[in-house]
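FIELD: query
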Amino acid sequence: MITITIPNPDVTIVQRKQEMGADAAPIKPVYGFIDLHEIPRDKGGIILFYNNKDELLFAGKARKLRPRVKKHFDDSVSPIKDHRNEVNKISVIVIEDPMEREIYETYIINTQRAKYNVDKVFFE
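FIELD: result
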């Protein structure tokens, strides 16, 4: 038997409501997230989208993390296109090796039963 341990996320950002007034954050939210800049731009890894109940909605992999996260919110063919309003938290795990990304993505989808993944699903 093979034992796989999912690494802890390197970055986790949570959606915040835009505050009004003098103490409001000077950063304009992108899709409700003001910390999107914390996600590495030129590193590969796994992207995990969660709802406000901390249930995994979707797991994906990317060669470049930040552009791929943004694409999930802009793209008309993204698997979460009809569920973007459910996303409350995004976690990323930096994994540079493409083969390792593939293994972790498939493992996470099936052990955490990602709600909107349709490919690589072995549970029913």
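FIELD: remark
The beta strands are 11-14, 45-50, 56-62, 89-94.
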